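Sharing a chain and its predicted structure for anyone who wants a worked example. Both blocks are below, sequence first, tokens second.
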Amino acid sequence: MKRSVALLISNIMATVYSAYLLVAFGGAIIEAGGAEFVEAIGAYFKVVFELVGTSSSAINFLYAVVALLCVHIVVFVLGSLIGWIAFAAKKSGGAKFAATLYLLGTICFPVYLFFGLPITIAGFIGGGNQKKINAKQN
């Protein structure tokens, strides 16, 4: 009943990162709700607000960034859940799907490439290792 260690490491990293995202941004999204989130997150991205100003095109850009950030959070949290399900069920396909979600989340918000890329790579390696482990046991 072996499982992939790389998949376990990927799931742990994804869970910690998802928890960070939910703590750092999730509370502000829930409190502010929708469009007001741009103002609520202004303190976090203060430098960006100072650079782009308050023109309508700058605000539209910030709305797009916030939308991509929300997609990033949802995809990583969902990928983390699917990764744990795949780990428990020893399903390599589920692990690769979770890694694909991590990759999509990283592409949506590449500012956090430093966090997303190692999780994605470990997820794909773990999915491949789990497939090999499953093949040896059958």
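Comments welcome. The radius of gyration is 18 Å.
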